[in-house]
Amino acid sequence: MSFWPTAKPLFGDEMVLRSIDWLENFPWRNEATIKKEKDKYSICLHAKDFSPDDITVKTADGFIVVEGKHEEKKDEDGYISRHFVRRYALPEGCKPESVESRLSSDGILTITAPRKPVVRRDTVIPVSHEGSVKSKL
Question: 107 in a domain, yes or no?
Fold first, then answer.
């Protein structure tokens, strides 16, 4: 006779699936998808709990800084406030002033920056001489 005759196994498949669903919908889980393409750099992250006014995107010291913050709000379980800050290194070839962002109706924040290939050229640096130069005889 089982301890819980009518209960399903505690760690069965259904329990695992419920745990996975709960983790995927964890409120402050902000996974980002980053694409580093030849001509564009883009970041997509989940921000469904934030309005456009709650989000700031800026560039500072070679980074894209994304911050989302909203004050305490009432939800179905009580009250909640949220805050996150993410920093992403701005890749070579992206100008800070070219970064753009948009929030879709389904809560996906997309940040893009056009990327121009960096052309590296050889540069000859002249050598300057100080003092007198002795001539060879």
Answer: yes
Whether 130 is covered by a domain: the verdict is no
SS3 7: coil
Q: Decide if 46 contacts 31 (C-beta within 8 A).
A: yes
Contacts 24+ apart (CB under 8 A), 24-30: 27/80, 27/82, 28/82, 28/84, 30/68, 30/84, 30/86
Task: Specify the pTM.
Answer: 0.63
Name the residue range of residue 91's domain.
30-114
134, HSE (Cβ side, Cα atoms, 13 Å): 2
Tens of pLDDT, residue by residue over 84-109, are 999 999 998 899 999 999 999 999 99
Q: What's the domain count of the chain?
A: 1
Residue 34: inside a domain: yes
| CATH code (residue 67) | 2.60.40.790
- Own/partner long-range contacts of 75-80 (Cβ < 8 Å, ≥24 apart): 80/27
Distance CA 55, CA 47 (A): 9
